[in-house]
Amino acid sequence: MLIETSIDIDAPTDRVWAALIDFSTYEQWNPLTPRVRGEPKEGEIVALTVHLGGQWMKRRHQVSRADGAALCWTITGPRWLMHGERCQTLTDLGDGRTRYSNREAVHGLAGLFVQVFMKGTLRRALEGVGAGLKAHVESAQGASSG
């Protein structure tokens, strides 16, 4: 199962990146993953508190990329049950604008379950993350320039 979303943010890429890796502020803007514990460094294990479809879940993922252009973590577990990756990428659009893209891939038996029963819910949640990040960064940028 694969879901991809994107949104354009009126802020430079470095400012969006700073917000994306500042896990301490996720509770302010991230409706899907309001809490992340750990470091945004490749190879690190991060503990996520996820709110999806009215349910709260605890997950542990491994950061697979954190380089200023993308923050990705792999979904770990028995490969037959669930494996995949969430990758949040930033593209500099010029003129102080950034495209934030979110790509969620889930495979294995759980991926089939998500595809059939949760794909729409997960898509809306990922769109909410993009909208939350946009509002968070743009409001902070307005406050710092005004």
Task: Based on the model shown, name its key terms.
single chain; 146 residues; seven-stranded antiparallel β-sheet; 3 helices; 7 strands; 41% strand; globular
Entry summary:
By secondary structure, this protein is an alpha+beta fold. 34% of the residues lie in helices and 41% in strands. The protein contains three helices and seven strands, in the order E-H-H-E-E-E-E-E-E-H.
Describe the overall structure.
Helices cover 34% and strands 41% of the residues. The protein contains three helices and seven strands; from the N terminus they run βααββββββα. A seven-stranded antiparallel β-sheet has the order 1-7-6-5-4-3-2, with helices on one face. The chain starts with a strand and ends with a helix. The model has no long low-confidence stretch (mean pLDDT 92). Helix 1 (13-21) packs across helix 3. The longest helix is centred in the last third of the chain and has 37 residues, at 109-145. It is an alpha+beta fold and 146 residues long.
Give the secondary structure arrangement, pairings included:
Blueprint: E1 2-9, H1 13-21, H2 26-29, E2 35-37, E3 45-52, E4 55-66, E5 70-75, E6 83-94, E7 97-107, H3 109-145
Antiparallel strand pairs: 1-7, 2-3, 3-4, 4-5, 5-6, 6-7
Helix pairs in contact: 1-3
SSE order in H/E notation? EHHEEEEEEH
Structural class, by secondary structure, is: alpha+beta
Number of strands: 7
Shape: globular
C-alpha-based Rg, rounded: 15 Å
| Tally of helical runs | 3
**What is the strand content?**
35-45%
**What spatial order of strands do you see in the largest sheet?**
1-7-6-5-4-3-2
Unreliable parts: none
**Main β-sheet description:** 7 strands, antiparallel
The N- and C-terminal alpha carbons lie at a distance of: 43 Å
Please estimate the helix content: 25-40%
Q: How much is the average pLDDT?
A: 92
